[in-house]
User: Fold this.
Amino acid sequence: MPTSFSEAFTNSVFSSEEWLRYTRHIQLPQFGAGGQTRLKQSEVLVVGCGGLGCPVLLYLAAAGIGRLTVIDGDDVELTNLQRQVLYTERDLGLSKASAAQHHLSQINSSIEIQAIDQAFTLDNGEALIKDHDLVIDCTDNFATRYLINDLCVQRAKPWIFASVYQFSGQCALFEPGGPCFRCLFPRMPTDIPDCNTAGVIGVLPGLVGSVQAGEAIKYLAGLATPTSNSLLLIEALDLEFRRIQLQRKSDCVACGKQQSFDQLKPDYLRISDTALSSKTREAMLISPDQFNRSRDGDQHHVVDVRSVDERQGFHIGGDHIALPEISEAILHLPRDKTIICYCQSGLRSLDAAQQLRDAGFTALSLEGGLVQWLQHQFKKGLQGQQQDAL
Amino acid sequence: MIKVLFFAQLREKLNCSQLEVPFTKSPGDSFTVAELKTQLTQRGEAWQSVFTDKQVLSAVNQLMSDNETTLSDGDEVAFFPPVTGG
Assistant:
């Protein structure tokens, strides 16, 4: 007896709409219906939905991964929109994971997407990794990457690492039984600048995240993945790529014979150190709110320590003395006032304030720099508008 | 000659993306990554700080290496640091 159309649909892996939607994948000889079926049956965990997470999620959702889980504890901020292409201005202040889920479900309503508005930690990480086939690391710090690595080694799950800095990126696929992230980076790196302090060209996480998404889709569909057990080095400025073959270390603390998971725990708690101890640093900081109040009186002298280009681009007043010139300018600064230094993100101003303190001044540094001050002003403006509306 | 490549922050710190150094080896001696690093540190202050930093990794002919890895004439050595943003 011939099968009716409706019966045929209920016996199929894909709905008629899905079959049409994924035509371009199914037509690929290396991919075919088999590859697309494997994507539909896959469950992928994406840790972090910032610069890397946005392109990764966009492509995984569009490709038809059956179940996607996205976890991130941060909210969408104005500084994110330069590169985090999943979000719109209307998402400002909303949880990233939930906002991502909202947009992704509009791209593909036939897949399951779960959002977790929390940071990925030792407490929630183990159950999440156990529950997925592949983990994609779109975080911005080494502590979380070590945690992902160690949990994946324990649970024999594959994961894809990627990171970006200014114009450079790195990507590697770690498979069970192969070299792990700790074989590559045995000790937690310190003093490595992240995007918040060093900047990143907006398209770079797009480039690196697309490599990551491509490797994930190929891996799940059963195609070759050149980043397996290899580290891809990406230079966006010179458009150069190099692939380094990784080697398993027999003395690796995570995947070697001497593995001891409990001893590794302190790594997840470590935060990046700076040259100054946190106590000294705290005493030198002035919050955006205190900074605003300080400008009412004449007890303070404000100094912008950024470059000439930055000064011309935007400033909030005060003297302009670029950091490299600060030691020469000391003679002209008023000794009877508190000097408040500011820069873009609060690092150079801290350096300047320290130099001035060493020269006998009372000096402070605007916490989080212009970026945090501007965010503070925008938030105040928003609250003001809301109060006016009431 | 040994072809030396630099990646990520190292390019900015050294203001150099690649260079060639003469393969210097007395007969019977080995020339290692550690010796190459020592030679590079002599190029100036920035080089000194990069190549005494234990976090900087190396690969010889696109295979991860360590300080003890021996080099042959014509090898390519890549130096790269950990990159953390996302």
